[in-house]
Amino acid sequence: MKTNIYIGGEKNIDTILFNPPLKSTNEASFEIISDVILGEFHSGVVLLYELLSRISDPSIDIHQLYEDDDNELNNIQTFSQWEVKDVKSNGNYEIVLKNDSKIKNIMGNNNEKTINLIISSNDPFICILNNRSMKVNYSINNAEIAKYDSFDENWFIIRTIMAYNTEKNEHDVTSLIKDIKNNDKLCKQTIVLLPVDNLRICNYDIEQGLSWEKLAFQTYNSILCSEYLRMMGFVVITFGHEGCLVVHKNDDGSHNCELIYYPFKIEGDITQAAKNSGFANLLTLQTIIAKFLSEINNGSLDVMELLCKGIKYGLKAMRKLVITGYNISKNDTDAKWVVNYPFDDITKIINENSEECCESQESISSIVFDFANTQIRNKSISIREIMIPNDSLKTILENIVRKGFSKINEDMGIPLLMYGKLKSIDRTEIEHLRNVYHIIDNYMNKSNIKEPISLCVFGTPGSGKSTSIREIITCMQKNNVNFLEFNLSQMNDVKELHNAFHTIRDIGIQGNMPVVFWDEFDVSKTNDKFLWFKHFLAPIQDGKFFDGHAFRYIGRSIFVFAGGVFSSMDEFQNIKTNCNIGDPELKELKIPDFQSRIKGFIDVIGLNPDDCNIKCNKGMHCSRRSYLFRRAILLRDFLEKKLELNQNDIIPIAQNILYAFLFAKEYKYGSRSLKTIIDMCNIKPRSPFTISCLQEISALKLYVSEDFIDILNDTYDDNIQYIKKSKLKMPCITNSHAYVPISGT
Q1: Strand partners, 483
Q2: Inter-axis angle of helices 609-617 and 626-643, to 10 degrees?
Q3: Which single residue of 305, 386, 389, 522 could bond 565 by disulfide (Cβ 3.0 to 4.6 Å)?
């Protein structure tokens, strides 16, 4: 049975204003001046029709529900500002969107227009509507509804918007969504497409990209809270160019959802890296979804599978658009400028011939969340915990060390955060790191803030507290950043603190940004408990301090307080209970005043089980297995450097040595212990890491628990978690050398 596709919606005309490069400077610019209009680009449904015609099966009939002429009622004219990204060798200009499109006029007036949707088809059809204006409303009358729900293969794919009245706290949608909501059959066969920002401006609580798990859960809850969206058969929410959430309403009224995402990215990463918001991205996604949904009559896949498959290809196409941009060239015949949508590149992506046109071969992953399960909803979801059951943990940890995390993650899709050399796959830590990144980035970009900003970093000794902040700021590629470190536990009096403030002030006067680590801020060399808190109140709040002679302004700076007594923010917040301090003393020490000035924090996960148990017992998201992944990732990094290997090389390490590093009970000084053991190893670059490379026992015992030696010798107790004794004879290590035990001895 033939499938027909009907396309309707507003036609967009992007007016391109372009000034060619000046010969003297070879620089180009775009200006909003009406008499230099050099070209028009038809987007909206016109672009949708042309793209779908190129990528769809030739046997599918595509029909227009709009008029070809520039009918005022069907027209939205946009006024876009562009800039030149690059001048190519062939003379074409690669352009990117500088500012988001501004609506010049909507239908020429402020009157609303309702268009009755009539589809003349006796065969199954897919109707694609690009209904982005509350001024242009499509409506289905009762006479048409019976015809539209006669086929299970009929589908509506609607790119729509929601509106929000702040005074009345009410939401509104287009009339088409209201008509569909009143018919259960049409609801079941409707796919609604919305950007997540549309939900945010409608007052739904969805935080800006901290972790995929949090984004998915908050978006899922927002859809269930919407009286319109929760009735639709499928709702597709886009997270920038980096991911989508598909929420499906089942026949019993329950909902399930699937997240499709780039594991190494989060909402906004691709756009920020490209410095280009692009245009027609959601329209491209909508078109590609329609192309795959048109294959439903083949019977090989169900709707959810086809929809998710279309979204994966759509995300690749959106990434191509936002990274590459568009080309503008001069027409030889009439000397007019022409904007070229990259139809050929998008077609190659759809046909899985994307090596030529995709800048990155990073894979796209997907995962199904059972948020309807009350037990799951009441705890924090972790993609890593879902993807890696206990019975496969040991193998995956081995492969992380031998092959590298990026290589083995192609099939798993575990979210990974990378800031320079800093890597994390723990959900809570990722959220903390991203939050601090945004705080620092916003502070550095706002020169009107004159006071210091304060952050806290907690973790066990050697967990990498200062490294975390250094890597975050270094990867921002900000100029004129100076790192300073002062250990407050070594200061004898307030004068030494004032000397530190003067040093910070001098760096700021030179035009640099001081990033100051106040190590062990919760420790005092004197008997005064929490001495330093009160001395930081004025510098943080007002940006000045009194040095005994006059008030001095510190200037813009970033204060990072690293804990020495407290290993987590939760412990620091419960200082009253943990340190047995009464309310009067609490106020006298100015502890609540100090805590209120902290803008963000990071709880760094260490290499030992207790580092995770502390956080887990406090009800945090941290998994009790997080320390094992931190060990594996750090061990891989240290061995790459020691053996002079690349990130794609396989590390040749003996299994018993690998198990000892991964499953020893304790590293006495955290990551410093692990790094010291690797540094002490007598191993040549690109050589196998065997037991003879290790130092003697007396040296190893300084840094790691004694069961490290037992695992090497295969003599450990059965209660060591995650590993079992090997049946093979392992080389054993003694005080001075390694040997292979002889049977019977």
Answers
A1: 515
A2: 150
A3: 522
Residues sharing a CB contact under 8 Å with residue 522, sequence separation 6 or more, in sequence order: 530, 563, 564, 565, 566, 572
Dihedral angle of Cα 518, 519, 525, 526, to the nearest 10 degrees: 40
Give Cα 149 distance to the centre of its chain: 39
The DSSP result for 454-487, as a single string, is EEEEE-STTS-HHHHHHHHHHHTT-SSEEEEEEE
Phi, psi of 440 (to 5 degrees): -65, -45
Among 202, 203, 160, 164, smallest CA distance to 179 is for 160
Which pLDDT score, from 0 to 100, does residue 632 have? 95
Give the percent of the chain with pLDDT over 90.
38
The lowest-confidence range among 180-184, 658-662, 702-706, 722-726 is 722-726
How far, rounded to the nearest angstrom, does the alpha carbon of residue 548 sit from its chain's CA centroid? Answer: 48
Q: Which of 636, 693, 731 is nearest to 407 (CA)?
A: 636
Domains in the chain, CATH or no CATH each: 4-366 (3.40.1190), 382-425+613-739 (no CATH), 427-604 (3.40.50.300)
Q: Which of 431-440, 529-538, 576-585 has the highest mean pLDDT?
A: 431-440
The pLDDT of residue 741 is above 60: no
Both tokens assigned to 325? 């941009």
Highest mean pLDDT among 85-94, 182-191, 641-650: 641-650
Phi and psi at 539, nearest 5°, equal -60, -40
Q: What distance in Å separates the CA atoms of residue 247 and residue 316, rounded to the nearest whole number?
A: 21
What is the tens place of the pLDDT at every residue in 256-277?
A: 999 999 999 999 888 776 644 5
Of 348, 346, 350, 347, whose CA–CA distance to 309 is shortest? 350
Nearest alpha-carbon partner for 212 in 254, 272, 159, 258: 258
Q: Cα(715)–Cα(732) distance, rounded to whole angstroms? A: 9
How many H-runs (helices) and E-runs (strands) does the chain carry?
A: 28, 30
DSSP string, 44-98: HHHHHHHHHHHHS-TTSEEEESS-SS--GGGEEEEEEEEEEEEE-TTSPEEEEEE
- Alpha carbon 109 to its chain centroid, in Å, reads 41
Report the interhelical angle of 465-475 vs 427-445 (nearest 10°).
50
Instruction: Report the candidate in 104, 136, 93, 89 with the shortest Cα–Cα distance to residue 117.
Output: 136
Is there a contact between 184 and 217 (Cβ–Cβ < 8 Å)? Answer: no
For 477-492, what is the mean pLDDT? 89
Q: Is 464 left (phi over 0), alpha (psi -120 to 50) or beta?
A: left
- Residue 730 in contact with residue 656, Cβ under 8 Å? yes
The model's pTM: 0.84
- Of 238-247, 283-292, 351-360, 625-634, the poorest mean pLDDT is in 351-360
State the average pLDDT for the chain: 79
Q: Provide the edge-to-edge strand list for the sheet that holds 453-458.
A: 481-487, 513-519, 558-562, 453-458, 600-603
Residue 699 Cα to chain centre, angstroms: 42
